[in-house]
Amino acid sequence: MAIFPSRDLGKIRHFMGMKVDYNCYTQTLKISMPDYLKQLAIRFGLNKAAPKRNPISATHGLKRGPRVTDPAALSFYATAMGALLWPALTVCPEIAFTVSLLSSANHFFTKSHLNSIKHLIVFLANSADDGITYNGRRKFIKYTFADANWGSDYDGERKSQSGYVVMLAGGAIAWALKRQHSVALSTKEAKFYAVAEAIVATLTTQQNL
Asked: Which CDD domains match (predicted)?
């Protein structure tokens, strides 16, 4: 502040669509996206839809279809996925799998994919106030969870999905879910790849802290 002209605006409350809540008495910090997610449902005409309890149906069975050539349909799908990617990267790690699965069909989506997008938007609107809470009273210990879904590629390549989440102070600070580059020949091999990716993420966050 001594080098460049600036002024102190106090504690941050909103940033890039995120809401930041401090509680000095409970020593907690919460980040969420209530306004963004509720407006997202209104934008797609889903604000009055029946609530959903999960990001995706357990029986979704999503498979890519033939290449979509309709410009309007492609634009709608790209717009929806772009709107969902931001919360998946910032405050909603629970939708990482669903967003990853849907984004893999950007030009090959079917009616089932469109229904799953609507399902996800309704779920987010109904859980818009959840977010991630960090508790300053908890031990400052970082730990990581990792797992893999062996052969979960529904489109014939049989590639597994890797996922991890790095936790600190009771909340997630880093997470990712993506399809593995190699075809694992067993569950153990798929999990080995997932753990390797999680170790890299853990060491990276350790250097940043």
From this structure: RNase_HI_RT_Ty1
Region of 17 please: left (phi>0), alpha (psi -120 to 50) or beta.
left
* C-alpha distance from residue 56 to each of 53, 64, 76, 101, 109 (Å): 9, 16, 19, 10, 16
Q: Which residue has the tokens 């940043």?
A: 208
**CA 129, CA 36: separation in Å to the nearest integer?**
11
Extents of the domains making up the chain: 10-50+67-137, 139-209
Tens-place pLDDT, residues 32-87? 999 999 999 999 999 889 999 999 887 777 888 899 999 999 999 999 999 999 99
> Which of these, 207, 146, 143, lies nearest to 178 by C-alpha position?
146
**Neighbour-count burial of 124, counting CB atoms closer than 10 A to its CB (0-12 exposed, 13-18 middle, 19+ buried):** buried
Distance of CA 161 to the CA centre of its chain: 14
**Residues in a beta bridge with 95:** none
| pLDDT tens, residue by residue, 171-184 | 999 999 888 777 87
pLDDT at position 193: 86
Q: What is the CA radius of gyration of the chain?
A: 19
